[in-house]
Amino acid sequence: xxxxxxxxxxxxxxxxxxxxxxxxxxxxxxxxxxxxxxxxxxxxxxxxxxxxxxxxxxxxxxxxxxxxxxxxxxxxxxxxxxxxxxxxxxxxxxxxxxxxxxxxxxxxxxxxxxxxxxxxxxxxxxxxxxxxxxxxxxxxxxxxxxxxxxxxxxxxxxxxxxxxxxxxxxxxxxxxxxxxxxxxxxxxxxxxxxxxxxxxxxxxxxxxxxxxxxxxxxxxxxxxxxxxxxxxxxxxxxxxxxxxxxxxxxxxxxxxxxxxxxxxxxxxxxxxxxxxxxxxxxxxxxxxxxxxxxxxxxxxxxxxxxxxxxxxxxxxxxxxxxxxxxxxxxxx
Length: 332
Prior knowledge:
With 332 residues, the protein is α/β, with parallel strands linked by helices. It has helices spanning 2-24, 44-52, 69-77, 90-98, 154-169, 174-186, 195-203, 214-222, 250-259, 263-271, 279-284, 304-310, 318-325, and strands at 31-37, 61-67, 84-86, 114-125, 145-146, 188-190, 209-213, 227-230, 234-244, 275-276, 294-296.
């Protein structure tokens, strides 16, 4: 009798497990791996917990890794296992397309693969003792600027192109804008490997101004750090890409990636300092994320394909030449 009851219980449990698998379309022990750039380190744990509370996410587990965007992209291309990537710039996803790890159509959907937005800002010390308000102020005598190394950090590339594009917005020629970049790098006092490391360097007391993501500045404020930030009149809109990686978990990865564009998920992005991609959510947060009169996108300065060759080729790029003149390695 006991054996019969035990067998019945086992069959009942198996049936329940089978029913759950049929209902969700997956095994209950699915684990998704997220590999991302350094800035969304604090928001993804909130996103994954919220997803696990949904029917689609019930039973899904997550692992994650966050570091400099290009470093992460190259690691995945070299074999680091992952299911979802969120990088700083689109060319870091394109590297995985070339490696056959991400579909060519990753950016063809409604939101072009962009899961969150931000803008390049000046992070300043309370009181702003150097009276920094404009891009010109960054290259005045005695001003020390912090931003990451553009040959490891996608965030640094956003910073550099924001500075370049702002000069064009001010009526400067491309040659004059390049001369400004040379001045800016001469004022740089720390080139960390990632945007998050650069923030930590600034918070430790180094530098007068940090070029950073608006979301990172908001994070520092929410943690009670003695800083505030200023959005310059002309600045660059940051658009960070998301993609699913080909593999055995791709169906589950696609479900999670799709959920990141829902109202609940985009609200979490917004509550953590990121500008929403979904328009209906963006409208609700319009006061929190004020527009800028001279905001521009990466296409204004040529688009990432052109920019990465012209400015960030590690041997012959404009920034490589500037860095080499300062004795900084570019990997070229």
